[in-house]
Amino acid sequence: MRVLSPSAEKICLVAVEQFAESGYDAASLNDIAVAVGMRKPSLYAHFSGKVDLFEAVFERAIEAERLYVEGCFAADDGLPGALYAQQLSERFLASAHLRFLLRAAFFPPADLRPLVSSGFEGYLARMGEVFGKALERQFPQLDGGRRELFVDAYLGVVDSLIVELIYAGQAAYERRLRAMWTIFAASLRASV
């Protein structure tokens, strides 16, 4: 992740909110500059344009959410992955980084699709690695093939929960979480 000046970091904090709420196309560099307390030409002293700013914000969102995921798995004292799945809705509401990351992944700007796809796939791959290591620690008797199967299933659970948050709302998310986690947890316990 590239190192930015304090002013550029402040711009990124405002921009992540704009990109999360409005999307890439509707986000305004002028509005971002005004919210930071500068004029639009001053923003160009830090970023060459909207694409450059988006890339910097995307890097920071990936990093923030990676750290959050790792923290959830480190604090998980039940079944691996339970804490993250159960707190996903709260995190979605509280974190502009997550809202931005998911909006970018589901509705990527056409010119930035390769960057977004690569970054989001890397984020999910890291989540899978962390979940796999947690499974290995808690269920060492689970062979590698079964562990990989559960990693893929867990990522499917998370993906389904994300879709509910984006398209259907809190009640649908809670219903889906109860159903999927009940089946997933029972299947995991039965496998060991």
Automatic annotation (TrEMBL):
PROSITE patterns: HTH_TETR_2. Gene3D superfamilies: Homeodomain-like (1.10.10.60), Tetracycline Repressor, domain 2 (1.10.357.10). Keywords: DNA-binding, Transcription, Transcription regulation. It comes from Pseudomonas bharatica CSV86. GO terms for molecular function: DNA-binding transcription factor activity; transcription cis-regulatory region binding. InterPro entries: Homeodomain-like_sf (IPR009057), HTH-type_TetR-like_transc_reg (IPR050109), HTH_TetR (IPR001647). This is TetR/AcrR family transcriptional regulator. It holds the Pfam family TetR_N.
